[in-house]
Design a protein that fits this description.
It is built from four helices and no strands. It has about 160 residues and is an all-alpha fold.
């Protein structure tokens, strides 16, 4: 084999070896970058998960503290609601009594002025708005009775003239 061919083969082999080493080195380098990116993503995901868990634990602790601190307020609110319900029941009962007394008074007079009827209807409306109507058959009948009362008392003189 001629010397020049041996040199050419040696140079080509050297170039191939150098290029192979560079190629393999580049492959290894890219592979390491890929693994590092993957590892970084996994670490980031773990860190985010850990931060999320810490945040949830912190919120859970805060909620427990708030619940504990608000317990007296909840008890007070429940007591206020109970008292308000009792007050409403009492008011409804008093309104019903006032309506009955007013009706009796109007019946005794024998007539109802427009202001009497307006006052009675206002009592009735508030009574209904507060949830009163446990005595619906009576109260509605009272309302009709008030509405049916004459606007002014007819004098005996007029009654005699009409007959």
């Amino acid at each position: 084999m001629p010397l020049w061919l041996t040199i050419v083969i040696a140079v080509l082999g050297l170039i191939g070896t150098v290029l192979g080493i560079f190629g393999f080195s580049a492959y290894i380098n890219e592979r390491m970058k890929h693994k590092a990116e993957l590892r970084n993503r996994q670490e980031d995901a773990r860190r985010e998960e850990l931060e999320q868990m810490e945040k949830e634990q912190y919120l859970k602790s805060l909620r427990a503290i708030i619940r504990e601190e608000n317990a007296p307020l909840r008890e007070d609110i429940a007591e206020i609601k109970h008292c308000l319900a009792l007050n409403t029941k009492g008011t409804v009962t008093m309104l019903r009594m006032d309506m009955k007394e007013s009706l009796d008074s109007l019946n005794d007079k024998g007539f109802a002025s427009s202001s009497d009827v307006a006052n009675w209807k206002e009592l009735y409306n508030v009574y209904k708005e507060l949830g009163g109507n446990h005595f619906i058959e009576y109260v509605d009948a009272w309302k009709k009775e008030v509405e049916d009362l004459p606007p002014k008392k007819k004098s005996k003189k007029r009654l005699v003239e009409k007959k």
